[in-house]
Amino acid sequence: xxxxxxxxxxxxxxxxxxxxxxxxxxxxxxxxxxxxxxxxxxxxxxxxxxxxxxxxxxxxxxxxxxxxxxxxxxxxxxxxxxxxxxxxxxxxxxxxxxxxxxxxxxxxxxxxxxxxxxxxxxxxxxxxxxxxxxxxxxxxxxxxxxxxxxxxxxxxxxxxxxxxxxxxxxxxxxxxxxxxxxxxxxxxxxxxxxxxxxxxxxxxxxxxxxxxxxxxxxxxxxxxxxxxxxxxxxxxxxxxxxxxxxxxxxxxxxxxxxxxxxxxxxxxxxxxxxxxxxxxxxxxxxxxxxxxxxxxxxxxxx
Length: 302
What we know:
Elements (H helix, E strand, L loop, with lengths): L1 E4 L8 H9 L4 E2 L4 E2 H6 L1 H8 L9 E5 L3 H13 L4 E6 L4 H4 L11 H14 L4 E6 L10 H10 L4 E5 L13 H10 L4 E4 L5 H11 L3 E4 L9 H7 L7 H19 L1 H7 L4 H5 L5 H10 L3 H7 L3
Parallel strand pairs: 1-2, 1-9, 3-4, 4-5, 5-6, 6-7, 7-8, 8-9
Helix pairs in contact: 1-11, 4-6, 6-7, 9-10, 11-12
């Protein structure tokens, strides 16, 4: 059973990917990227994704609605030796769907078919995956149709976040949908949604017979979740270990983004690490004021 780190804008940069890989994640996705952005300034796109020869396997998710742009971007990613190329058909963000991309593709299955077809023709070596939601809303569930299209058009893998677009990230992921789709397709289906413990992962695998687990928000601040799932046990990390892990994240990010950007960008990540601490609020305040790695370290009490 493979575990996957989901692409998350603002979170799955190289530093976080490296941490999750060290903790046992099999495949870690970079932040999703607009196909046209990759094509417009290729060197900038590669820099944005922080892809280097040392990172293996490399996984990138594209979004867009133009078949030709997605075809060409897929070809370029293969030239960069990307190992997993994913089409985003699930992002619920308004700024994405208003362009016809993300979850909006679930409202136009003929366009989705054309996109997968041209991407498959362009991708010769890499694993071509599709990430979907259940549909636009509860009145328009199309996951069975979308899954069948992905299979018939030659996709290698299907990631299924068991929510509708209208749910956003609210409510609960409906894992029986994942089991239903996994039972109908020969295409491997990887389940996604609300996995926060190894026990939940084990239960969902047993219930659905899916091919793997993709984790998004549950791993933020807890990259060790991947190790827990692999080993089937909980690590009761002491406070100091958690803070050391957090500081390691700061330092890794500084290596890629520079110290100033790192301490600013970590302000939205750090609260996930210290959640549940009796002095979490005080730590957050100190880290929000930190202007250097040293000040961040002191704010953690290390």
